[in-house]
Structures are given as C-alpha cells and as structure tokens.
Amino acid sequence: MVRLFVIILPVFFAVTSFAYADPVITLSIDDVRSPLLNTAGVQASLTGSKESLLDIQLDEVAIQGKVWRGLRFSCHKFQIDNGLVRCDEGVLTSARSAPLLISFQFSSRHKILDVTIQTSSSEGRESWTLSAHWGKPSWGGMLTVTNGDISRIAEFLPVGENEILPTPIQGKGTINGSIKLHGDGDGLAGIDADLALDGLGFSDATGLHAGENISGEINAKAVRKGDGQGHLWKWNADVNWPSGEVFWQPLYFSAQGQRLTASGELNENIVRIVEGKLVLSGIGEMDLSGVIERPANTLRDFDLSADNLELSMLFSQVLKPFLANTPFADLKAAGQAGIRWRYRNSAHESLDVNLRDVSVEDERGRFAFSGVNARIPWQMQGANGKHEPTTADIHIQSSQLGRIPIGELHIPLKMEGWNLSIPRLTVPVLDGTLTLENFSASRKEGQAQEWQWQFSGGLSPISMQKLTEALGVQPMHGTLSGEIPRVSYNGSTVEVEGALLVRVFDGTVLIWNLKALDPMGPAATLMADVDMRNLDLNLLTGTFSFGNMQGRLDVAMHDLELFNWKPVKFDASLTSSPGNYPRRISQAAVQNISSLGGMGAAAAIQRSFLHFFDDFGYSKIGWSCSLRNGICHMDGIASEPMPNGYLIVKGGGIPAITVIGYNREVDWWELVSRLQRITQVSPKPIIN
Amino acid sequence: MANPVFLFRLILLMLLSMMPLSGYTQANIEIDTPAIASLKQSMQQRHKQLEPYYSRGAVGLTHDGLIAMHDANALPLSARQPVNTLIAAENQDRNALYREIARANSHPEWEGDIRSTFGQRWIQLARPGWWYQNASGSWVRK
C-alpha cells in the first residue's frame, strides 16, 4: 500500500502544484498503462484555497499483476506551500477494508516523504509509519509498524487469480518492528527487516494447512548485487518460533523454540539457500541448502544433513504421520540418527542414514529390534542416469519376532534404487539358525507401490523345548528344521514353498503349503497343510496329561486356516500308524477319547467291572473332524463303518475296549474346553 | 391366423430363453467368520471415537466405502493428526473387511462389488447432518 502512494503522489502533486491558483481542480483519467503500474478510473479533485479538500478515487490499481479495487483517499486538511505538500487527517477507504487514517507530508525541495497510517478504531494503537528520502542517485526509507493488524494486511493483499496462500483468520495476529529500505536509480537495492509476529493464525479452505497463536521473530536482510536486468539479491534470515502450533498435512508441530537461520541468493528465476540451519527442539540441528524455482515455487534441489538427531522425537513427529497406512504405523523408536538427503532436479538422488544404538518396537508386540547400528547409503540415480548399487551395513544386537527371540544379526543389504538384495544372511533363532539366501525385494510399479520380496533358505534344527518355552505353550521335546526352496511376498500374501519339518514325539511333522494372507494387516490369516507321522503316543499323551496310551499315531490336518492363531477351518484325521508296536490304552485315556464323541453314556467304565483294569488293548484308532463355521463334523475309523455312530477305538487283545461315538457334530470351542477340562463324560464303551 | 397375443408371448419367451439365467450367484455380505467378526468388532469400537467427527462434519463417508477428512477446520489443530490416524486405521479395517467377505464367499474377485454395496449401505445408514460423497465424488450433507 505504501509503495502505491510513493508512486502516485509525486505525479499527482506535480500536476496540482502547477494549477494551484484555481480553487477547484478536477482530474479524470480513464486508463493508465505502464510496465510497472496500471490504473483504471482515476478521478481526483482539489477544492478550496488554503486548507483544501483533496479527493482521489481509483476504481482499480494493478501493480505487477496484483490488483486493488475501489480505493478512495480524502484529505480535509490538505496544504501545498512552497514545494511542501501536507495532509493531516486523511482517510483511505477500500472496497475490502475499514477506513484508515492517513497523514503525510511531501517536500519536493527537501526530497522527503513521511506517511503515517493509523486505524480509525477507538483502540487507536495500531500505526504504520513510512519515512522516505531521496536524492541522486540513492533513496532510502523506513517503515515502522506498531501493533499492526496482520488480518488487515491480508485484506489489502491483492486478489491474485491462482494464489493458494493461506487465508489469515480474521482478527488474529499483530506485527511490530521496522523495515529499512534503500535504493538507487535501478530500484530497490537493500532491505533490512526486524519484525515480531504475535498471535498469528492462518488456514486454507480445507484446514489441512493451518496455524494458530503463532508468535515469532524474523530478522532478514537482503542486498542487491549487480545491476541492469541481471539483478541478484544476497539475503540472510533468522526466524525464531517460540509459541503457537501448525498443522501441515500430515505433520503437526507445536512451537518449542524452533529456529531457522539461512542465507542465500535470489533472482528472477530462483531462490537459492546457500547455507541454512534448522534447530528443532527435542530432535536436533539440521544443515540445509537448496534451490527453489520461481515463479512456480517448486523445489528443484535440496540438501539436508544432520549428524545427531534424536530418533524418538524425529520418528513420532515427522516420520510416523507418513506411515499411518502401513504395518509400521504403530512403531516407536529411540536412539540417534544421522541423515544426508540429496534431492536433485525435483527427484530423490540419495539418502544416507546412520543409526546409532537404535531400538525399534512395534506397539502391537509383533516385532522389536534393539542395539541397531547401521549405515545405509541409499542412492537413486547416478550421474549416468542408471542405478548405482550400494551396500548397507546393518548390525542388530537382538530382536524379537512375536515371542521368539532372534540373536545378533549382521545384514549386508545391497541396494540399487528401489531394488534390495541380501546374498546370504544367517539368523540365529533360539539354538538353531535360519539361513536366508538370495533375498531380493523391490517396489511394485503402480499407484499402491507395494513391496514384494522373496528368498530361499533353510532352518537348522531348533529345540522344540526352547521354542515351546518361548511361545509359552505346552513344553515339547524334539526339533524343528526345514528346507525352504522359496518364500515370497507379493504385497498381500507370504507363500512358503517346500516344507518345514518338525521332529517331535519320535515322529515327524511336515508343514507345507504354508501361506500368510495380509500378514501385517488387521485380518492376518495363516494357512497350511500339516502331516504328522508315527508320533509316539506314550510321549504325546504324557506331555499333554491326556491319560497314557501306547502306540503310534498319524495325523493329517489339511486346509488348515488360522485366524489370530486359532483354527477357523481344517479337515483333520487321526489314525493309528501302520506297523507292529504295543497298543495299550489307559482307562483315563479312554474317558478322554470318549469325550471327543460328545455326550454319550457317561462314566460307563466306572459303572462296570472295567474299572478294575488300568489299561486295555486296542487294534486301531481313527477319528476325523472337519471344522467349518465353528462346528466340528466328526467321524471314526473310515474302514469300519457302523450303522449308528462311528468307531473311534477298535478293541484288540485282552482286555480289549471299543469306543463308539454317536454325536456327529460338536461345537469346536466346546470340544476344546471339554478336552481342557479332561471331562469325565464319555460315550459308551463296549467290552469284547 | 395365429393369435397375436400368443405370438407376442412366444417371442417374449424366446427372447427370455436367450438371456443367461443368472449372471452371478448373489454374495452373502452378512457372512460371518472369525476374521470378519474381529474386523467388525474393531470397527464398532472405533465408531464411538469417530461418531462425533462425523457429526461435526470433520469426517465424511466416501463413495467407495471408505472414510476421509471432509473439513479439518472443524477440529482443533492438535486433533487433526490423531483423526488422520483414526481414518487410516478405519480404512485399513474396511479394506480388509471387503476382502474377507469376498474370500469367505469363495469369490475374491467380488471385492469391488462388495465394496460398492457397502459404500451405499454406509451412506444409507448415515445420520442426518453427516457428510458423504455422491457418485461424482462431490461432498453432500445428508
């Protein structure tokens, strides 16, 4: 606004001074066009002789593409005397603003201009004062603001066609301070601003970029270098942010003494930050530099480096909001990080991350890493436009996958842009090792940009005792091992080709067709086929306090589907293994097996003479369960169909016992709880 | 001369016989599995947190069966990021729900149709005053 009057007034006064003898002067200009200033509908009049009335109306003023409309300036105490033009108690009104009181004096002889603008409100504490002087070849000026209302500035800001500037919230924010300007025949040559903002608020229409109660201090200097068309400005600035809050989707910051100091250059095409320092309380200091292209204001180049950042605050305040829709949304991290980020020609070029004593923990308990020390020198493109391979050196002291502890890890991660690979990695798991070979990961093309990865490997024997202890389940003896031709993840499903082999209870358990759907998502589902062979019933029943049985058992559990580690669906069958071996079943085991058949003839053994015997002979065992929708559909020995019921235990030897089931359907969870209670209820045993 | 009504019926019958009897077996969107039950429970619990934001107009229902920030100005600045997180978690559950229902129907390829059916249903169930996106993507107040 002040700039506008600096331009208009000398022209107008030159005209009026010349014709001052006439008591009424009117001037009407339809349209004025110049490279600097365009006006339309200018009307000016001067009435009276000594203390005259000056009235200027401008329908539209445009300066360098920015437009003001409906401006009117009236001065009731206007004087011109010997080259001095003076106005006291002038009033400026605009279509978008409350009236402003303006006083000024202009001396063409002394080459000075003093303007004071004050609010017309009763508060009356707000004032804007400009003092300018000029000669040959230089000129200078100083703008002093006291309690300047920031929302008023916004009202007077020109209405640009495509500007997406935040709109200040009405009635919020004041500005105090001064701006010194000086120039020469080529225009403005230097600015020195020392301003303090208080209570600033702004918001865009959607509220996704907004700030409230912002206070801050800005000290900025800029000096023009060179002349003619190739103006280059050298600038430096210091911004301090002691209070307030800002939400800039998806980031939220509350002021904690953050500070930005920067110096650089500016011309018509670019803003260059040569040297900058950003201090974020609780996070650390960052050095930055870069280039912003004008007039689009797009970031072309940027360098950011920091050696000692507190990862805890950096992660929670800056990184986590970007991970909201990923499996890493519930992480918390701690430790120290160093970062070198290089951005060139509007694209990421390299990111070098150093981690020191870092720990990462999933708040849902799915995984955790501690004692992480790493150097990850990621590079997107080399000078020739091709991906330059680099190798990350990652060392992890210990980690946890679910409840399973993982030992010390050293990961030689090769990176080629978004393609990652590990030739070989040995992962200590309890007392065994998982060996990963030819691990490769890449980001899928397309909108979702999901990751996909694969590896092959093997699992050397892990003690089942240690594994069951870690998992907090019934202790078991034996080993778990496996050869894994291929494990792959396609963005939604992990598939394991090959089989995992578990040696337990002197038999084997083969797990194959292993698949995890949406493994890190809210509906993670595990699918597999399981075949158990030749399990020693003596060891098995001893482990689970089921009641002693002697013999061998085969179990097939196909189409197994687990949600939240609980079975949702399967087709299971238990049969006595082929071969010759002692087959004995204790009275307690008979009771428990009988319970699988549901409510039958209860405690039949106890009522008969059979309770004199501790165990019985049998020739065959068979039981099957198809779990669908929470219901177990049961059957017995497939080769021994019965007209009513189904045969679970076929007697053999002396004394022998046969167990028949009658209920074909049972609620799965009821069945599980029955087994857990070791129920006394059993189907009717038949004595041979 | 043949009866014209009879002829018309005959032609109609011939035309009908040329049409496929049924393109799809209808999906059972009420199907229940432990995964679906768990997702519904999680969404139900979150709904208590989301409801005031729907009522204030801060959050609205999108036409593709998800939710989105409609007007962040209705929230204090410090609440905007937590609401973003809430929206992301809800959308993760909703996407998983549509996928699970399609899978439980043994037709994973029905996910898109199930999503749009749910999208319409959520909007029908929305309370007056809540915001939703119509088919063209514009926000409308119910």
From TrEMBL, chain A:
Domain of life of the native organism: Bacteria
Keywords: Signal
Keyword Signal annotated: yes
Endpoints of the signal sequence: 1-21
Protein name: Dicarboxylate transport
Organism: Nitrosospira briensis
UniProtKB/TrEMBL annotation, chain B:
Leader sequence segment: 1-27
UniProtKB keywords: Signal
InterPro entries according to UniProt: YdbL
Name under which the protein is recorded: Uncharacterized conserved protein YdbL, DUF1318 family
Organism: Nitrosospira briensis
